[in-house]
Write a structure and sequence with these properties.
This protein has about 350 residues and is mainly beta. Helix content is about 10%, strand content about 50%. The strands form three sheets. The protein has a ten-stranded antiparallel beta barrel with strand order 2-3-4-5-6-7-8-9-10-11. Strands 14, 15, 18, 19, 20, 21, 22 and 23 form an eight-stranded mixed sheet that branches. Strands 16-17 form a two-stranded antiparallel sheet. The longest helix is centred in the N-terminal third of the chain and has 22 residues. The termini are far apart. The relative contact order is 0.14.
């Protein structure tokens, strides 16, 4: 009787294990696709999408070769029903494309983070997945880690407060450290929430829709990082909605700009010049900018959000990054409009020396 009881007990344990495993549901359906996603489907990190939309500005502390810089402006906007992105340039050799979007991974819908671009003309793209969320009425926290190596390889922490954003990145420096160390620390304050409204309306953003099925994407790789375009599972060229604006400047009525001098091309979503002075509202809507080295006078802003913009340029004579006495500036509110997946060209004229 005791032997029989033990057999029955073991059978019940096995049944419970099998039943529990079955309750998780299959990783994919019979067609190899994830199960249907609906408005009620749990998506780890989903609320970040609505919180991050807008133009943010703040100082960066960095251990990268680019060092620290007091101003970094990022324009996050929807590019789909469940994806936001932002593209930034420092100069012609350094750029970054960031994107948050819904993926399916390990039998669960989650938010992913794609972070990559050109660093001194070298490619690096990292994919991370949300693994930790804390949300309250006045604070939200989302952690993203490497799809394969988890928090041992890369960590990006995204925190939201009342009107501010904090993104802190950690890396184990190409697997040379046992514990990741701080890579970049950005504290930003919201500047504008109007520029993203058109895209929100277009996509009825946010919604719970699948962007990429990453169930088997990283099978056979040691980490979810790419150093060439080859093999990148969701390259910039595959991003939806975005277009290209080729922008330039000319010079007239002012002394010649010295060769090698820094010239800024700046794009805003509201006019920067109002009544002959700088508009604070316009300043807060800076969306994209790049530093060119004279005589280079043109730049293609790719993967740019569709919309209406204003273009400006200034020669930074003293190298402080601010239009002030002795600098040359453009004084017209030059406008252009970029359509969905479109291309557009525009040029402004540097024509005034600041007294």
């Amino acid at each position: 009787m005791k032997f029989t009881s033990n057999i029955i007990f073991l059978a019940l344990i096995v049944l419970l294990i099998v039943t529990a495993a079955g309750c998780k549901g299959p990783a994919t359906n019979n067609n190899g696709q994830p199960p249907a996603i609906t408005a009620s489907t749990p998506v780890l990190g989903y609320n970040l999408l609505s919180k991050i939309s807008g133009i943010w500005n703040g100082a960066v502390t960095s251990t990268t070769p680019l060092g620290n810089y007091p101003v970094w402006i990022v324009d996050f906007r929807p590019i789909g029903a469940s994806q936001v992105s932002a593209k930034n340039e420092l100069d012609t050799a350094n750029s970054i494309f960031m994107s948050f979007f819904i993926v399916y991974d390990s039998s669960q819908y989650k938010l992913a983070f794609r972070n990559g671009g050109s660093f001194v003309n070298m490619t690096r793209v990292a994919y991370m997945v949300c693994d930790s969320v804390t949300e309250s009425s006045n604070y939200s926290y989302y952690r993203f880690v490497d799809f394969i190596k988890g928090a041992k390889r890369d960590i990006v922490e995204v925190s939201f407060y009342a009107d501010s954003l904090h993104i802190k990145a950690f890396t184990n420096q190409n697997n040379t450290l046992t514990t990741p160390v701080v890579h970049m620390d950005w504290h930003a304050v919201i500047q504008d929430t109007t520029s993203c409204q058109a895209a929100k309306t277009t996509f009825s953003f946010p919604q719970k829709t699948l962007v990429e099925n990453f169930s088997t994407t990283f099978t056979g790789v040691t980490e979810s990082i790419y150093y060439t375009a080859a093999g990148d599972p969701y390259p910039e060229s595959a991003q939806p909605y975005l277009g290209i604006s080729t922008l330039s400047y000319t010079v007239a009525g002012v002394p010649a700009i010295p060769s090698g001098a820094k010239v800024y091309l700046i794009v805003t979503t509201q006019p920067l010049i109002s009544g002959g002075t700088i508009s604070t509202t316009g300043l807060n809507t800076r969306s994209r900018y790049v530093i060119l080295s004279s005589p280079d006078a043109s730049f293609a802003f790719n993967y740019m959000h569709p919309g209406s913009y204003y273009l400006y340029a200034f020669y930074d004579a003293n190298g402080d990054g601010i239009p002030d006495s002795g600098d040359y500036v453009s004084t017209a509110n030059t406008t252009f409009t970029l359509a969905q997946k479109g291309t557009v060209s525009a040029s402004t004229q540097i024509n005034y020396v600041i007294p």
